[in-house]
Amino acid sequence: xxxxxxxxxxxxxxxxxxxxxxxxxxxxxxxxxxxxxxxxxxxxxxxxxxxxxxxxxxxxxxxxxxxxxxxxxxxxxxxxxxxxxxxxxxxxxxxxxxxxxxxxxxxxxxxxxxxxxxxxxxxxxxxxxxxxxxxxxxxxxxxxxxxxxxxxxxxxxxxxxxxxxxxxxxxxxxxxxxxxxxxxxxxxxxxxxxxxxxxxxxxxxxxxxxxxxxxxxxxxxxxxxxxxxxxxxxxxxxxxxxxxxxxxxxxxxxxxxxxxxxxxxxxxxxxxxxxxxxxxxxxxxxxx
Length: 288
Ligand SMILES: C[S@@+](CC[C@H](N)C(=O)[O-])C[C@H]1O[C@@H](n2cnc3c(N)ncnc32)[C@H](O)[C@@H]1O
Fold this sequence. Notes:
This protein is of the alpha/beta class and 288 residues long. It folds into two domains: 2-17 and 185-243, N-terminal domain of TfIIb (Single Sheet); 60-182 and 246-287, Rossmann fold (3-Layer(aba) Sandwich), CATH 3.40.50.150. Helices cover 32% and strands 28% of the residues. The protein has eight helices and eleven strands. A seven-stranded mixed sheet has the order 3-2-1-4-5-11-10, with helices on both faces. A four-stranded antiparallel sheet has the order 6-7-8-9, with helices on one face. Helix 3 (58-70) packs across helix 4. It is globular, with a radius of gyration of 20 Å. The protein starts with a helix and ends with a strand. The model has no long low-confidence stretch (mean pLDDT 96). Bound molecules: S-adenosylmethionine. The site of S-adenosylmethionine has 18 residues, from strand 2.
């Protein structure tokens, strides 16, 4: 009885707190990508060929690799560092074209999958399970890639720290290949405020309730998707997914301030022509 009372108290406190607007880039639960259950849901999502979910759909991945090689952004024999490589959907395809790839991801489940797949396909790829904030390379790579908007998920300070590590990892004149979302994507996706019950799904294997909230910080071009998950044992966790959108002028400024200059922009890394109305900006920047 006492246990139930405590549980109800915790749930009420959590619901009372749900009206509070988190501070900009206030962290939530830290175990997300590598959580034993969430990482399983994520891997299924990465491997779904038909949705733009944890990874983009297969057709888009194939077009992207074709474009990066066809437009000589990545060249035969290049050493490429794939930051947040997931299950290796780009790394493996690049390796098949003679690129020497190192892939880093924090999800053990994704890296285990990537290693197994590389073994089956006879591909020699250096897959590392760890955080890209721990990289310590000096002038090693011709290209560093970070695909599917990861750069948008950081505060300015954290982003600049990562850009510093990437800059150092690149050879002189090396390329940083990445994409960022724009305000247009946020407008088309909208802000969600809802709750739902699940018998078991993305967040938890068993019965749970999810309180999903969206917060806008328009002056900072930043958005928060917050998910409060209450499981049947009464455990409550709040996950915060932050997104800082960019425009061509704002991302150019960030790159210039961090020792890069833009070589090439499109609306997608598959080479789609850049338009101001695009949901994404795909960038190839050179270390200067
Ligand atoms: C949106 S997914 C994109 C995956 C991959 N680039 C793709 O497009 O298929 C972001 C990836 O970054 C990884 N990730 C997130 N934070 C990380 C960190 N600090 N260090 C390494 N990997 C990280 C996640 O595990 C996930 O695989």
